[in-house]
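To make this tangible, we now present a fold written out as tokens:
***
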Amino acid sequence: MIVKNCCRDATSEIRSRYLSICELVTTVFLIPQRYVLGVMGFLAIINSYTMRVSISVAITEMVPPKNSSSHKSDICSYSDSGSSTTNSVTGTTYPALNALLANWVPKQERGRIGALIYAGNQMGTIVSNLISGQLIEATRDWASVFFLFGSLGIVWFVLWQLLCYSDPDSHPFISESEKLYLRREVESVTLKKKKYIPWKKICTNMPVVALVAAQIGHDWGFYMMTTDLPKYMKGVLKFNVADNGIWSSIPYVSMYVISMFCGWFCDWLIRKDYLSVTMARKYFTTVASVGPAIFLVAASYSGCNRALSITMFTTAMGFMGAFYCGMKINALDLSPNYAATVMGIENTAGAITGIVTPYLAGVLTPDQTLTQWREVFWIAFGVFFATNIFYLIFASGEIQEFNNEKQSDDGGEK
């Protein structure tokens, strides 16, 4: 009996100290926990894309240049040219983050928090492009970038385990006011237990199919820029590896700034009832499709003018920043309960373009000439327009019927 009482007292004391620590940590955090999740999600995407993009920069040094047989008038000539696919990396990142956002982000904050998180791919691309080229030139070893970004990924993982939780109720550091706010705003459209996934209804739902089409359009353009822009900078504009990394990052700075502004602007338009959720998603997705389509083609007609080419690429990527408050968070509108599943479907379809576009660019540009690259950009133009038209016709910002699908007694759909 004495031992049992001592154990009970010790347990109570430990629990009391734990709660005291949690209260102390809660007062230390100056921003709501949903924004802490947003920042950590932002860093998660950065981590994924630094590892992805560093390959695109490093591969220009892994693979020796090919002797060209094309006419010299179609090839840029500069004096500083002598410096000597990981789609699976982000395969689970986006669906996992979408599942968390469904539990943490109210409808009226999806634009800015979604843009904050998904803008991590631009920042990851910027950081990787800026650092990779300089690091390779300094160390004379292309493998150095993988050691650096891999180590930073481990640091992020430790912080993620300490700071982020599946839902507000399980979070030890969240304030009571924020927990009550999220219960009121988020739990009204989410189910705590989902025993099955209505695959047939999800896969045949036209707004979901439209979302998949828009994702293919976005990923076609984005992966083409991510994997092929460093090749264009080196093969056509003849930048060396250090300058290649710097100049290849400039378009993503534009995309990052525009994406953050569009996230705030989109939420403002919805909050003021100037646009419905559906119209807001369609509008910003269209901006993010038409702008890049036009300016990527314009870049191919810039010839060997480095400044004009970079300006065109920067403008194209700036427009693409509007995707994140458009189609990228649309899965949360359609189904908070199955947002991760919908994101997984669209992300899988989009990831295929990450395989197709580098291969297609390689086949179409064996000699790295302006004319050959122009074909690549015109194809991107067609993909952007076709997928956007489909999205405009069938997209929706309303919760779909399958979101509240229940299971019948025999285990089937009801």
User: Anything to note?
Assistant: Residues 241-271 form the longest helix (31 residues). The chain has one domain: 31-404.
